[in-house]
Input
Amino acid sequence: MTGSRVVALGHYQPAKVLTNDDLAAMVDTSDEWITSRVGIKTRHVGGPDEPVDEMAAHAGAKALATAGLQASDIDLVLVATSTAIDRSPSMSARVAARLGMGSPAVMDINVVCSGFTHALATADHAIRAGAATRALVIGADKMADIADWTDRSTCVLLGDGAGAAVVTADPAADDAPGGPGIGPVLWGSVPEMGNAVRIEGTPPRFAQEGQSVYRWATTQLPPIARQVCEKAGIAPEELGAVVLHQANLRIIEPVARKIGAVNAVIARDVVDSGNTSAASIPMALSKLVERGEVASGAPVLLFGFGGNLSYAGQVIRCP
Output
């Protein structure tokens, strides 16, 4: 049974930027109110001509180029999203068509904000089982399409974007210094609290019980994240970076502190991008790598959480 590793990353965001002052002209809010409560300054918003699959394909193409691979080299495409409007063709099938792939397996995964880490684990499992050799794993969401722009408690959070990772088989991945290429996943949920984050209705709209999510994330998730490190054989102080779901700076900072990753770079892309749901982790990691803030081979904790009150995390070696 072979292991796997992430060999390249890519990300994409729409050109339009919505500032806190722009939002203050739309709803009863202010830059000070938003910054003090969630730490967000700007977010990118796609137009009607930028569907989810187009953003996903842009991020995927960038990751493939960085990896030095052709689209035809990919035999599995996974797209994590909760904002696909159509049931079929799936976002993964549309991405494969946009990129001109041959005959990959295609699958969408909807676990909302923890979708990417679920999808990454699924790709790792498929490769270990011999069902795939090279996977393109994408998190992409267009939250502007489901935002209630009259609700100041939620519309200030949301942004659009996509992040992608190329994952390949590597027989030596589990034995390399710095831990496995992609470590064992730890995932789960709290079904009885699933309604705390919702995308419901026609047309669908995003809503959440903010205080319930905040209490759950800041009190229940740090010990689970530490268990993710234990499963990978990595101590928190050995981490080179921590990339949590970019939900809210007031969640990210205390959770990262409680994990004990005292030497790690903490991703804070939420300040510039807002909450992009499944896109947030791969997009934030791609930016850290692009800026050279994390060394190649360094252990990185990825930890998604949110919708369904689900969570999934793994430690990977930075490409």
Q: What stands out?
A: The two ends are 21 Å apart (CA to CA). The chain is about 35% helix and 25% strand. The chain has a mean pLDDT of 96. The longest helix spans residues 210-232.
